[in-house]
# Entry
Amino acid sequence: VHRVTQPISVSMRPFGIERYMDFPDNGLLDIAPIKNKPTWVNNRTGSASVSKRLDRLLLHNHLMMDMDHIRNWIAGTQCSYHFPIVLDIEDDGVKQGAPFKFNPAWILDQDFNNLVKENWRPFDPSTSNYVCQQFHDSLRNLKQLASKWASSKYKKCSQLLKQTEGKLTALISAQEGCLFSEEVLYEIKELETHKNKLLLEEEMEWRMKSHTT
# Structure
């Protein structure tokens, strides 16, 4: 839109096509999204509802030639009538590492809390005056340590689950043909509780890996 009084129809705009052709003439291309969804809605229902693809993603043709994989899509949002356009670029065809995923169950683990307390770096003005940079560096360091801790915890959890199931099976098999004493029933209950806790932790890990909630 070049002025407020400009007509809506493209065909009625003076030099509209000429100015539109300035984009491809200068190497800028309109990249269509994977699914041609609207980028704007008027937040009304029924016959008054309007949705348009107002926003466009323009890329220079040199960038498209240099990159192996380029794709974009329209992301959803709950805080605006405009939907953002997301651009995904892969320049070497190599799949990047999985993003860091925080498991809320870690907060209940004292080992994780100790990890945070021991490795979080508070702001040090003698090192640098850039608070945001120090916060970023501290967070990045903690993410690396948390990833290693989570990997070790998952392996340990799998081993404990096998051991707990083995103890539970052996305990029940040893009581075959006999009445369970109070001590045995209590031990079975404790093992079952521990087993269910480990299964819940394992389930949460698998949910995170499969991107489900």
